[in-house]
Each structure stands twice: as C-alpha cells, then as structure tokens.
Design a protein that fits this description.
mainly alpha, 4 helices
Length: 101
C-alpha cells in the first residue's frame, strides 16, 4: 500500500516537473514512473536472487533482505528516471505550439 502512495506521489512530482519545463501534457513522462519503479524493483530482486542461488544459500520462507534490495532497485531506477527527465531541455513557447520559424 505504501508503495502505491509513493508511486502516485512520484507521478504527481513528475507532472509538476515537466509542466514547469514547458510540457503541457506530461502523460508519457508520468506513465514511465511506475514502469521504472517496478522494473527497478524486479531487477533488484532478480539480481539478489541470482546472487543467492550462485552462493548456494537456501531460499526458504520470507526474505526481508530480498524485499529491501528490491526496494533499493526501485528507488535507484526512479531516481535515474528523474535525473533523465531533468536533463531534458525546457520547451520554449514556440515549441509548445508547433510554430516553426
């Protein structure tokens, strides 16, 4: 439940960021926030699981460390996405309306 609230909050922040940079409809930027979150979470868990398998450690029961590593992957992926979004140059008013000089 908390993850959903974090993702919704991040989507809103992404919308605010992209609107402040001149993007009137930041839907696609917001769409990729949960994609990066869940992709990072999956990759973090997968890498940790592979590491445990290679070490021959048992995989019985609930593994809190696995979940924390997966969350770390989600945070890293989302942070990377925000860094990418901030590196996109702001749109000028002429770019927003499709006017070419």
């Amino acid at each position: 439940m908390l993850e959903i609230l974090v993702i919704v909050s991040l989507c809103k922040k992404m919308g605010e960021l992209m609107r402040s940079r001149g993007h009137e409809k930041p839907f696609w930027f917001q769409f990729f926030v949960p994609v990066f979150w869940f992709g990072g979470e999956f990759m973090g868990g997968l890498i940790y699981g592979i590491e445990r398998a290679l070490k021959g450690q048992p995989t019985e029961g609930v593994d809190l460390k696995l979940y924390l590593v997966a969350l770390g992957g989600a945070v890293l992926a989302s942070t990377l996405y925000f860094v990418i979004a901030k590196s996109i140059p702001p749109r000028s008013s002429a770019d927003s309306h499709g006017d070419a000089a």
